[in-house]
Amino acid sequence: MPVKSLVSLAWGLMLLAAAGAAWADVPVRTPVPDARPVLLSALQSASGTAHGVLTGEIADAIAKRFEATSPVYIDVSTEKRYRQTGCSRLKVLFWQEGVRLPEVQTPRGQAIEFGINYCLDGLPPKSLL
Q: In the chain, how many domains are there?
């Protein structure tokens, strides 16, 4: 095989490897009608994380109102696990791309992040220890 072909093949393989590595970083997002299933998944996950994408009437209303170019994404991560089984402090992030806000010329990404103490039964923990 000529040297030029080997160099082209090597570059092609490196690009494929880089693309595969980037694809591996994309989280699997579960379609959900609200955030609760993503919170529960994070509580049950060994990594303490879960990812979702909002669907249904609420998602449609948000997309219509803000003329957004992407769905509403939900990312949940565990900040602290409490002694009470199935209870944690969770960081919840809702985000969306291409959001048009009133009086703003250019669409942009918008996000809201908050923390919540949450348990598998849907209630807050009895103790924060």
A: 1
